[in-house]
Amino acid sequence: xxxSYVGAGTSAVAxxxxxxxxxxxxxxxxTAILGILLFASVGYVWAKVxxxxxxxxxERVAVATGLALSVPVIGGLGLQAxxxxxxxxxxVYLLAGVTLVGDAVLITxxxxxxxxxIEKRPRFRFRLGWQAVTxxxxxxxxxxxxxxxxxxxxxxxxxxxxxxxLYTHGNAGxxxxxVDNQQxxxxxxxxxxxxxxxxxxxxxxxxxxxxxxxRNFAVSETEVTxxxxxxxxxxxxxxxxxxx
Amino acid sequence: xxxxxxxxxxxxQRVDSHPSDEAPRRTGKxxxxxxxxxxxxxxxxxxxxxxxxxxxxxTAGRHGYASSAWADGVYWLGQALxxxxxxxxxxxxxxxxxxxxxxxxxxxxxxxxxxxxxxxPTSFTFADELAHWRTSVNILQTGKLFTANYQLPISxxxxxxxxxxxxxxxxxxxxxxxxxxxxAGVAHILFVYVLYIFFRRITCSYRVASVAILCYASSxxxxxxxxxxxxxxxxxxxxxxxxxxxxxxxxxxxxxxHASWLFLALLMSAATVVTHHVTxxxxxxxxxxxxxxxxxxxxxxxxxxxxxxxxxxxAAAVAWMRFTAAGTLTYLRPFADExxxxxxxxxxxxxxRAPPTSAGPLGDQALxxxxxxxxxxxxxxxxxxxxxxxxxxxxxxxxxIVAASWYVIVAARLAVADGSELAGRAATFxxxxxxxxxxxxxxYLAGLAPRNLADSSWRWQKRAVAVAALTVMPVLIFDGLAxxxxxxxxxxxxxxxxxxxxxxxxxxxxxxxxxxLAALGPGNRFAADAGNSPVLGTYGDQNxxxxxxxxxxxxxxxxxxxxxxxALAIHYVLVDLRLATSLPASGQYxxxxxxxxxxxxxxxxxxxxxxxxxxxxxRIYDDGNIVVYNLAGEGGVDAP
Lengths: 244, 640
Fold this sequence. Notes:
The complex is a heterodimer.
Chain A: H1 2-23, H2 28-50, H3 57-81, H4 88-109, H5 130-154, E1 161-168, E2 174-182, E3 187-195, E4 198-207, E5 212-218, E6 225-231, E7 240-243
Antiparallel strand pairs in A: 1-2, 2-5, 3-4, 3-6, 6-7
Chain B: H1 28-33, H2 40-65, H3 69-91, H4 98-119, H5 127-142, H6 160-172, H7 176-203, H8 206-216, H9 231-251, H10 255-275, H11 277-297, H12 300-323, H13 328-348, H14 362-389, H15 394-403, H16 405-415, H17 419-451, H18 459-483, H19 507-520, E1 525-527, H20 533-538, E2 543-545, H21 559-567, E3 572-576, H22 605-609, E4 618-622, E5 626-630
Parallel strand pairs in B: 1-2, 1-3
Antiparallel strand pairs in B: 3-5, 4-5
């Protein structure tokens, strides 16, 4: 009995704290924990509302998890139907609200259960021994495996490339010319703009990795405008070419 | 391998009994000697080391060893460290408690999920995952459901997965990728638990249930499509919980609990309906078959309750399709038509259009053939056990009926073009009754030896049958891993491959797609190859054309091409010059490719560069490998 009150209270606190954390714009480290706790709370509370004693154990966990996942699925449709935009606050208030309603049902229903015999189950006891250490090692190794795979993916070598573009969009009389260096190192370029096949502008550009160069200029719809990009020191062969 | 104890209880056991969570009571010296001396924590550690081995070899693949034989060997060693200890422990004769069984299936499921995560640990790369990522981004950006998704237009109309992900992103502040992994992982493990509980309920045996879970884990999509960030992954536990609630609804004696189970059944059914189309239809079909089985057997209350949930689920599915997801039939019809045509051709004995069922290595093909043969042989034995012991129980009878669809998916694999994929997708559902029926067969065969050891004349033959039955399970699982996803040519992540699914998604392709979105805006009709198309449709939010091979396979851009471009309203074409450097890893250069698996040479470079000379076509983007042309330029095709 007392444990039920504690459970209802804990879930209510998690719901309220989640709302506070969102309003106060708490850091992700805090909201991540509170958010997952909020998901767990809504499942726990409604499993308790629906089923007082059975199912138990794994089946109860499964039912609670299913309920937790179904709340945003069905609730999101309700919010959409009510014209509420599905932004951050809407999701938080939905989950917190459903949790608090469940808590209210649990708390108001409690007195009726005094007469019923609450089935006592043996509590799972966790003994800290070498088995626990082995399980802990397994968790660390598995976590390390994911970290290793992440590090491998982030350090994977890809060939560098340079994006070069020339396009008119929206405003037909204005073209956008640009270069984006993704070579992994600083590069020097020469960009030559061609109108009717003749050079009409030239820029020497030095871009560090990830740096972008862009210009807008007027173009005529009746003449071909092109641009060649050279990667220095090679000024013989265009490295990239675009035309409109 | 020692003999199994699988307590296939008699059919007289009440189906509404609650199997104990404790181990079968064994006392004295026998109990002490019949427990395994290998602690479960060591099995968990072995699985973790297996994950580490696979992660290490994935890293090696990314750094230049993707095609190494030793890397492939280490991958299989890692998988063996995960699968074999769990399988042996579940199949051996030693006493196990329910808690230990749950722990073992948790270890197996979580370890395999970690392997899936390690394959793509920093972002989604599989096309379907990217499509659902796009829908999630759209919901978070617009605050609305049902916004356009050009890559998978049906996805926004079944938004359950994206709603749950958006909610988690919102309440935790975590990025979409991490939130998606959490939702998919929780849904996958939940489905395994629900499946185990479900098997335990209808078999009244946690050992048979655990063998059934092992068998289900051999489904080719268990570690891929059933655990990826795709809508089916979340719909599956909803389906399982609906069936579980219906089981309780049909069998529980406490009248007060009926309303709760009915509420849960309807809630989970509704969640299934709005999460995934095919899963919701499978749910309705399963409920109808169970209801009819109950009616046929004479259990009318059960038939009525199950029928009621079936009726309401069907009404919900039809209403959803009618009012919210009107494009569902259009989306599914090509798959259905192709399947029916292929099967008709097979029945008629005519020529089918199916390509070779597997172009994989000989070992993978042999494993696949062995699995088909094994399950095909074990199913009749399982049916016989159901007839002998469970024919008065609607749930086992329904499972036996649906298990027959195994032979249909085998036929589809042989007869239908793209049948391997269809069979694989269907396997997610078909393997549920198949796993149950095969588990009964394995349990029976493996149980022959200990029950008949006194009969010395048949002792070694029966023991051989038992060992063979037990050896089958790991073989089935390795077949699922070898012939599931990812395919053999991208089993290890590595450098770019032409039309290579995940291996075609890299920084260059993503940067191009992002440039396209920023420069050209969303929703343009775009032609692209099979590798770039999903990236363009998701990161780029463009509207990819699927049957666009004609633009890449001729030496000139002809008036006929222009007419076809106008008919398909194609505005831009993305040309990846690497298509001229190698054959497509997946067998097809284009999203819909009539010449799939028939290419003998890479595409000629002149076919790809012809747009440079085409009048009125603008070359608006060039990054060396990828060039984007605007076909709607002056003198070109009019913009749609």
